[in-house]
Amino acid sequence: MAEEVSSSSTTSPAASATAPLGSSVISLVNRLQDIFARVGSQSTIDLPQVAVVGSQSSGKSSVLEALVGRDFLPRGNDICTRRPLVLQLVQTKRKPDAPDDEYGEFLHLPGRKFHDFSDIRREIQAETDREAGGNKGVSDKQIRLKIFSPNVLDITLVDLPGITKVPVGDQPSDIEARIRTMIMSYIKTPTCLILAVTPANSDLANSDALQMAGIADPDGEFLLPCV
Questions:
Q1: 167 touches 173 (CB < 8 A)
Q2: Chain segment 108-117, per-residue pLDDT in tens
Q3: Other Cβ atoms within 10 Å of 172 Cβ, number
Q4: Strand partners of residue 89
Q5: What is the dihedral of CA 209, 211, 212, 214, to 10 degrees?
Q6: What is the tens place of the pLDDT at every residue in 20-60?
């Protein structure tokens, strides 16, 4: 009996090192989604994810960078997010007596690791221009980026283009309707949490992000307001 109690109360190092079941599922489904995206398949798997929604220059990039703990997203006064950025955060183990190994990998550049987060920003901008052009055009084709770090949680975030009302550059006259349709295609799924970002100096009653979240989720069950 004593041996049975001892063995049941002792946790083996292998068991303690095992990742939680949820992390394993997230990793598996993310890999399947990457495969579908690579081959251009229309098949999708609805993995719980957080869609970041807001108007242009509402502070979405700052919120995402705060979650990652690094600056890596394009910035500017005009529309910066012109393609959906699927951001897969992967928590790695911290090595004792060693600096944190943080890096990013793009699906369209397999095998290449970006340890300099300024290079990640430049590649996001370059890949955006390759698909949407260099004059403020918008595309619904995703950019898929994984960031590996011991300082993040296993989670999938989607940075969506900001809602804009006045077309600029190569944007069509119905740019607002197109962006709203793109956003709705993500936030209407029941597995999506809506992170609605609104500037603190604006009237919440007129928040585009909250209005869209209210349409997709009238009961507010999946809404995460952020001011």
A1: yes
A2: 999 999 999 9
A3: 11
A4: 147, 155
A5: 120
A6: 545 666 677 677 767 666 666 555 566 678 999 999 888 89
